[in-house]
Amino acid sequence: MGALWDSHYDGTAELIELNPVQITWLRYPMKDNGRGNLIPDTAAQPKENTAWVRISRQKGGVHGATVASTGLTTNQTMFVLALHDVDLKADDIITANAGTIRKWKVGPVDDLYVEGECYAKQAPLVRADG
């Protein structure tokens, strides 16, 4: 890896260290469905995965704030930032060890690249605990 990749990786690691949150999620092993496709084996015991990530807010489009019956609302959404080796996938349900909202559904995961190598992943989060 080059110096630019190292710089991006180190910067991401520092962002995570500023406000680290440990998350857990379950992943079922994959099996052949008899037609050459791999599908989750829901009869097997799922594997529990853990990782340290950063859960933050991001602006969802052009900044906007409106007054509603519940008060002032904004168009900010939550997202997760993780290092490149964290195996997060869209539709995973993660459980966080901090904050009042503890379960999130992971949206589309974007790999972040520099110098042709992935240094981090990010994805939007949707509340999954009620």
Provide a descriptive summary of the structure in words.
It is a single chain. By secondary structure, the protein is mainly beta. The protein has one domain. Helix content is 12%, strand content 51%. It has one helix and eleven strands. It has one helix at residues 3-18; strands at residues 21-27, 30-32, 38-40, 47-59, 65-68, 71-74, 76-83, 93-96, 103-106, 110-114, 117-127. It has a six-stranded antiparallel barrel with strand order 1-4-7-11-9-8. The protein has a two-stranded antiparallel ribbon with strand order 2-3. A hairpin with a 2-residue loop joins strand 10 and strand 11.
What's the structural blueprint in terms of helices and strands?
Blueprint: H1 3-18, E1 21-27, E2 30-32, E3 38-40, E4 47-59, E5 65-68, E6 71-74, E7 76-83, E8 93-96, E9 103-106, E10 110-114, E11 117-127
Tell me the distance between the termini: 43 Å
Gross morphology: globular
Question: Total number of helical segments?
Answer: 1
Number of domains: 1
Within the largest sheet, what's the order of strands? 1-4-7-11-9-8
Low-pLDDT stretches are none
Radius of gyration, taken over Cα atoms and rounded to an integer in Å? 17 Å
Number of strands: 11
Helix content: 10-25%
Q: Report the order of strands and helices.
A: HEEEEEEEEEEE
Q: What's the overall average pLDDT, rounded?
A: 86
Structural class by sheet pairing and helices: mainly beta
Quick rundown:
This protein is mainly beta and about 130 residues long. The protein contains one helix and eleven strands.
